[in-house]
Amino acid sequence: MSFSRDSTLRVHFKHTHETAQAIKGMHIQNATKYLKDVTLKKQHVPFHHYNGGVGRCSPAKQSGWTQGRWPKNSAEFLLHRLKNTESNAPQMHRRTYRAHGRINPYVSSPCHIEMILTEKEQIIPKPEEEVAQKKKSLKRS
């Protein structure tokens, strides 16, 4: 079992949520190939939950859904998480310098990712049991 977590990422939360749901339950090699195809716009990510304003696309018919996108940035971040590489999150404390000496915070909403990889369970064949003869009960009359 492998565990990976990253926080304060500069990616869209909703795009990352939909991309993570698309690779949930996939084998790691299939998920890696899928995310690489998303960055190259060969496969799409179906948007099930956060789909307000998301346009319809014809490749979405493959997944049985009408709405989809190709979130390149989210796919790249999830690809880095899959490879278990640690990326340094950029500083979130930025400032905007305004007129007349004022300074305002440059606020951005962070995105936290947590990914758990587990090994696939091996199927063990059931041993063949010997057919036991039924014992007859002897009743005394």
From TrEMBL:
Q: What is the lineage of its organism?
A: Eukaryota, Metazoa, Chordata, Craniata, Vertebrata
- Report the source organism: Gopherus agassizii (Agassiz's desert tortoise)
Any one Gene Ontology MF annotation carried by this entry is: structural constituent of ribosome
SUPFAM superfamilies per record: Ribosomal protein L22
Q: Tell me which family the UniProt entry assigns to this protein.
A: Belongs to the universal ribosomal protein uL22 family.
Superkingdom of this protein's organism: Eukaryota
One GO cellular component assignment for this chain's record is:
cytosolic large ribosomal subunit
Presence of keyword ATP-binding: no
GO process annotations (BP): cytoplasmic translation
Q: Which UniProt keywords apply?
A: Ribonucleoprotein, Ribosomal protein
Q: Protein name, please?
A: Large ribosomal subunit protein uL22
